[in-house]
Amino acid sequence: MTEVSTAPHGYRIVEIPESRKDEFQRVDQLAFAFEPDAATSAQVPLTLDWSRTMAAETEAGTLAAVHASFPFALPVPGAEVPCAGLTWVGARPDHRRRGLLSAMIDTHFERSLGRGEPVSALFAAEPAIYGRFGYGSAADDVRLVIARGAALRDVAGSDDLTVRFEPLDRSVHVPLVQAVHAAAGNGRPGWIRRDTTLLRERQLADPPAWRDGGEPLRVVTVLAGETPRAYALLRRTADGGARSKVLVREVAALDAAAAHRLWSVLLDLDLTATVESGMLAVDDELLHLLVDPRAAVPKLVDNLWVRVLDVPTALAARRYSAPVDVVLDVTDTRLPANAGRWHLTTGGQGSDGAWDARVTSTTDPADVTVDVRELGATYLGGRSFAALARAGLVTEQRAGVLQGISTAFTWPLAPVCSWSF
Given the DSSP bridges, would you call strands 79-91 and 119-122 parallel, antiparallel or unpaired? Predict the structure, then answer.
């Protein structure tokens, strides 16, 4: 055990080895009010990276709060950047309100920067918490409830594809899902790959306790010949009649024809009445293919939250949709190295039409004043500087600059992560 950071009086922040996994998990269970059964625990892989797993420990040696992170490659506009995916954040109910979360977040930032990770990302169990640590809501996903039989517009090539509907077979479907999922996200910011065996296997975990009375997990695969082009992970919940639900855990498709063929099957399964989608991008193909958009009831949910840990490195790592020359005055109360004025200027334009950039410290007058939280919100291209300014969260210091920077930060595809970590 190694003590790695300062903490409130009576505690220390320490690394947690795998030998203490039962203690670590117990804190998580107390924090999130659940108790898994032994059969479920045996079937669901524990995906923690023990070199990145931390806890607040009392002087008596008991664990009071925990957190961990994943080493992700985060797709950003035109590139990928090393990213610390923050997860498993929780404190025992009898150790709340003692500054443990702040101490753990500061430790997370320090260690992430030490590993060369200029950004962190998370899914927020409580969205009200993480903004005060500089995380900005950077992406949304949409979840649809669609009536069976909803018509789709025609897509050339869809009828040439074949479909398999079969029970989950991990030996077959883990590699299939991994390959299609990784390829389907090409060019989409936020589409984090599952690059470890444990993460891939967990996405297809299907213990009976998760089924809520439904069938075991099924896999629909769309193929061109024998080559997979799309898949859906789903289960049906039967009510004894023809009013069952189709619950879609995840979908991915490589092109419009494959997406059309896949949804044509999902929207027309016998003995079902509705289809509930998983996490879809707000510009997902399905939203454009529905003949009657009112056939779907949407629910918009915040998706990835992004924290910029190293402003110049993060901004120079992504690419831009238009040339820009702007001085950002960034505020950051937790990481003072980020605070100050940064000159962001684009340089060469690539064959894809996007622009590279460089970022330098400057004393020139600011064009835009922005907190690091809003900078994280705009980082994946899914939020507009101009919209944030209208909300009073960004200040334009030079008239007219917001239009240019808003255009430069946008990206043709909306950001989304299709699975939560």
Answer: parallel
Q: How far is CA 152 from CA 120, 158, 265, 266, 285, in A?
A: 38, 11, 11, 12, 11
Q: What are phi and psi of 190, to 5 degrees?
A: 90, -15
Look up residue 131 and give its amino acid. Answer: G
Angle at the Cα of 154 (from 152 to 155), degrees rounded to 5? 115
The rounded distance, in Å, linking the Cα atoms of 262 and 222 is 6
Strand ordering across the sheet containing 136-137? 3-5, 11-15, 53-58, 63-76, 79-91, 119-122, 305-308, 136-137
The Cα-based distances of 300 to 144, 176, 278 in angstroms read 9, 29, 12
Distances (CA, A) of 99 to 6, 43, 421: 11, 35, 24
pTM given for the model: 0.96
Give residue 82's pLDDT.
98
Whether the CB-CB separation of 253 and 224 falls below 8 Å is answered with no
3-state secondary structure of 55: strand
Which DSSP category does 327 fall into?
Answer: E
Spatial CA neighbour of 183 closest among 230, 232, 151, 139? 230
55-104 tens-digit pLDDT = 999 999 999 999 999 999 999 999 999 999 999 999 999 999 999 999 99
- Pair 87, 70: CB distance under 8 Å: yes
Q: How does DSSP classify residue 85?
A: E
- State the Cα torsion 100-95-302-247 to the nearest 10°: 140
pLDDT at 5: 63
- Give the CA angle between residues 232, 237, 238 to the nearest 5°: 130
CA atoms of 412 and 381, how far apart (whole Å): 8
- Residues near 145 by Cβ (< 8 Å), separated by ≥ 6? 274, 275, 276, 277, 296, 297, 299
Distance CA 223, CA 225 (A): 6
3-state helix, strand, coil in the chain (%, to 5): 30, 35, 35
